[in-house]
């Protein structure tokens, strides 16, 4: 039961405070990871594995130790703060809503600038529908990476689980590219993130289906997800697009080159409304997860007393 209450408390903190404006732990971790990469980079998988362990495991062990040798109430408070730092539900809305508002005001330049803070593609080349698609895809994918994945591993392993997941996800974003520099060095970061995200991504996809157009979500999930490069982003975005009854995916520009990507979803072309509906889909999913966690906590508590 304490786990469910901690999840609720962390989400309330996120809603009230948003991401820390100064000294965000993930920013500090990113700097440390960059330092490790600078000193350890080599075109070898073994070096990448060692660098990943050096970056992540001390943080996980430190979190475990911080909770192990303090009173129970303080350990619970630490867990809440850790989970609060690991999730970014409010931040997603703060990034996505300006894109939708700019599109609603027919200000394409402002929409491109706003979506450029969410995605890595070349936003200057995007038209209004492509901007809306980029923002909607980012909300759906980051719903898993920045919300449900962290909640899942917190429920499984407590605060150390949330730290493990979020730092692994961050290293995947930094090192998990198929480029000459990271093809071998970043292999471990990409594969570990794939493993840690396997169950959360599918639970996220199912959550999107429950909160939207269920049949459309399931149909797109099974038909379109296998065509996507990422084994976890595919189910999440295909199910999310199907749940919203919107068309996503398709070609996108990266580093001056338009890359072919499979189409996702079906139905209406993306618009500002799709961005708002994606945020609502995510929020409804969070309510479901909290309800399930509280019910499971009550059931376990009742079983213990029995």
TrEMBL record:
Q: Does the keyword Transmembrane helix apply?
A: yes
Q: In which pathway does it act?
A: Cofactor biosynthesis; adenosylcobalamin biosynthesis
What stretches pass through the bilayer?
73-93, 146-168, 286-304
- InterPro entries, alphabetized: Cobalamin_biosynth_CobD/CbiB (IPR004485)
- What's the domain of life for this entry? Bacteria
Keywords, in A-Z order? Cell membrane, Cobalamin biosynthesis, Membrane, Transmembrane, Transmembrane helix
- Cell compartment(s), UniProt: Cell membrane
Q: Which Pfam families match?
A: CobD_Cbib (PF03186)
- Does Cell membrane show up as a keyword for this record? yes
Annotated membrane topology is:
Multi-pass membrane protein
In which family does this protein belong, per the annotation?
A: Belongs to the CobD/CbiB family.
* UniProt xrefs under PANTHER family: COBALAMIN BIOSYNTHESIS PROTEIN CBIB (PTHR34308)
Q: Give the HAMAP family listed for this entry.
A: CobD_CbiB
Q: What does this protein do?
A: Converts cobyric acid to cobinamide by the addition of aminopropanol on the F carboxylic group.
* Protein name in the entry: Cobalamin biosynthesis protein CobD
């Amino acid at each position: 039961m304490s786990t469910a209450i901690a999840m609720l408390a962390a989400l309330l903190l996120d809603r009230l405070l948003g991401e820390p404006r100064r000294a965000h732990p993930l920013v500090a971790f990113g700097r440390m990871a960059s330092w490790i990469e600078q000193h350890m980079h080599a075109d070898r998988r073994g070096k990448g594995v060692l660098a990943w362990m050096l970056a992540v495991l001390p943080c996980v062990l430190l979190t475990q130790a911080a909770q192990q040798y303090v009173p129970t109430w303080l350990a619970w408070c630490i867990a809440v703060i850790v989970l609060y730092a690991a999730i970014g539900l409010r931040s997603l809305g703060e990034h996505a809503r300006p894109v939708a508002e700019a599109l609603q005001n027919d200000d394409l330049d402002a929409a491109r600038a706003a979506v450029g803070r969410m995605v890595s593609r070349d936003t200057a080349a995007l038209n209004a529908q492509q901007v809306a698609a980029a923002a909607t895809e980012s909300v759906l994918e980051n719903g898993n990476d920045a919300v449900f994945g962290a909640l899942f591993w917190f429920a499984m392993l407590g605060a150390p689980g949330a730290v493990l997941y979020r730092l692994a996800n961050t290293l995947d974003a930094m090192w998990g590219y198929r480029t000459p520099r990271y093809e071998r060095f970043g292999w471990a970061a990409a594969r570990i993130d794939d493993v840690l995200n396997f169950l959360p991504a599918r639970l996220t996809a199912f959550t999107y289906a429950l909160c939207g157009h269920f049949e459309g979500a399931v149909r797109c999930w099974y038909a379109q997800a296998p065509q996507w490069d990422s084994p976890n982003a595919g189910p999440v975005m295909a199910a999310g697009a199907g749940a919203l009854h919107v068309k996503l995916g398709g070609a996108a520009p990266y580093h001056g080159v338009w890359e072919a990507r499979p189409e996702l979803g079906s139905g209406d072309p993306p618009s500002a409304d799709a961005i708002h509906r994606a945020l609502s889909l995510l929020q409804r999913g969070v309510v479901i997860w909290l309800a399930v966690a509280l019910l499971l906590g009550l059931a376990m508590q009742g079983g213990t007393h029995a």
